[in-house]
Amino acid sequence: MLSRDQAARYVGVSPGQFAKEVEEGRWPEPERRGGAGRRTARLLWDRLLLDRRQDERSGLVQHSSTTGMAGADEWARWS
Fold first, then answer.
1. Which are the contacts of 31, defined by CB distance < 8 A and separation ≥ 6?
2. How far is it, in rounded angstroms, from Cα 50 to Cα 59?
3. Predicted structure pTM score
4. Closest CA to 46 of 31, 61, 60
5. Alpha carbon distances (Å) from 60 to 41, 53, 55, 56
6. DSSP 20-62
7. What is the pLDDT of residue 67?
8. Inter-residue contact 45 to 1 (CB < 8 Å)
9. Contact at 8 Å (CB) between 28 and 54?
């Protein structure tokens, strides 16, 4: 799991640009960990989900909106 700064570095953009791209739907939403409130929760991104989103955009993996498994099957084939 990656913090916002780590995730931004991982995908090669600034933290501010990464936050903007998450809002635009380019990258997956973070998981909220710890803390009861929205402000106290820690936001974390799954590195494999970031990889999968990039693979979908590059055409390496086709997203399946019906089962969600086609991408996982394709990912396993390339791993």
1. 1, 43, 44, 45, 46
2. 14
3. 0.69
4. 31
5. 33, 10, 5, 6
6. HHHHTTSSPPPEEESSSSTTTSEEEB-HHHHHHHHHHHHTSS-
7. 46
8. yes
9. no
